[in-house]
Amino acid sequence: MAKCSVLLLGILLMDFSALVKSHHGNGTVRNLEEIIIGRCYNYIRVVNPTVGEKDCSAIWETFRNAFAYKEPCNVLPTDYKDFINLARHAIPRDKYAKEASGVVTVMLNGSVSDGTFPKEGFFAKHELPNLRNDKISEIQIWVMNNIDGPVRETCGTGTVKDLEDIIKGRNFSYSCTDNYSLDLTGLLLLGLVLLGHTERPLAKAGNKTVWTGEGSTENLKEIMIGRCFNYLGTVNVDAGEKDCPNLWKAFLSAFSEKDPCKITTEDYQPFLDLAGHDIPINQSIFWSQTKGLILQYTGVTHKVMPLESTLVGYMVDGLNWCGKLSSPEPNFEACPGWKECENNSISSFWKAASEDYARRAHGEVTVMLNGSARGDTFRNNSIFAEIELGELDNARVTFVHLWIMDNIDGPDKESCDVGSVAVLERILKEKNISYSCKDNYKAAKMLQCMDKLDHPSCRLGEKPIA
Fold this sequence. Notes:
Layout: H1 8-13, H2 32-47, H3 56-65, H4 81-87, E1 102-109, H5 122-127, E2 136-144, H6 158-169, E3 174-178, E4 213-214, H7 220-235, H8 244-253, H9 269-275, E5 285-288, H10 291-301, H11 311-316, E6 334-335, H12 345-359, E7 363-370, H13 383-391, E8 397-405, H14 419-430, E9 435-439, H15 442-448
Parallel strand pairs: 1-2, 2-3, 5-7, 7-8, 8-9
Antiparallel strand pairs: 4-6
């Protein structure tokens, strides 16, 4: 599936089944203002900075005005016009209705009972009529059946044929594929927004007073408070009640008015104590040099909860921050780079958060490592080796699943029972923790193939070429 940026409009409203519901439905999502403003700043500062400046408070006001002081059943699409105009921005090629261009994709469910292409559906009524054949070179239709079936409709049949006839009648070029796959038996393609592969390195260098790293993320406060309310209200309601403004204050106090190279792990303990919550049994997963794949796997399966999917990690992942001695506010001009000093604000945070996360692990845990890494697969200076592994003990952890994942293009440098992986296995034995080790775990391998469908290693049973 092609990589894409998600629209600001979609980010602002995602996960709200209805923001103002009928009288028999749930009420408006709590802390809606903070969530939407936070999502707005998160989008323009972190997700898609190319959008440019937006007045997120004004965007919220126009959104609220669309339904405030109105009968909930009498809110019209035109009431949201001002909101849409303020939030609108250029759309990437190959995506979305009026401004879509190039190759666009339509994914439909061939297992539903009320028609794969419902005539009264949102796509049929609002999006399809706005596709322009002077801008679109091809429409790709993917008809996907549920993994357990049934197969009710396919290309060229039923309502799918109705859609094909409409597209042909409007002189679009198109193709239709049933259960678009990777030539892997039984694989159902899942929509993914691919995430960047990054690592949490440990900084090792001397102190400086002029920093070369980027400054704190603009609107850091609004982003973090918004993420907090969003997490508690829509992502993980089981995390319990939390005071999001107070969490921000605890986080800020860890580095505010302090030398940005003298931040300790203990400085973050008040924040961790306030934000911490239980990790479901058997859902802890640790990683090194495989962050993007871990987050893809998490988003698709919902069977694991890495640190980045806890409230602690969710609030800060992908952000930058540090303080300065002369002001209680974050330093938005420059922060120490990873290698400029060891005890910088971000490095100390991830060390503290990782230790706290590992202490909460119980039951079966999973570890995903990179078998194609330039250095060792199990690096003795990684956060997993230095901090997290030491916190795992056989009183709480009953089993460890090791997954050694090679990059899609290889090389296959290390695998189970080989090199540094063998060292990790020996440590687990010494800790009396039972474990298994798998090379290129199939479910994760399928996710790697999403972006390189024709790669030879994406055939079952084959390894990347060394």
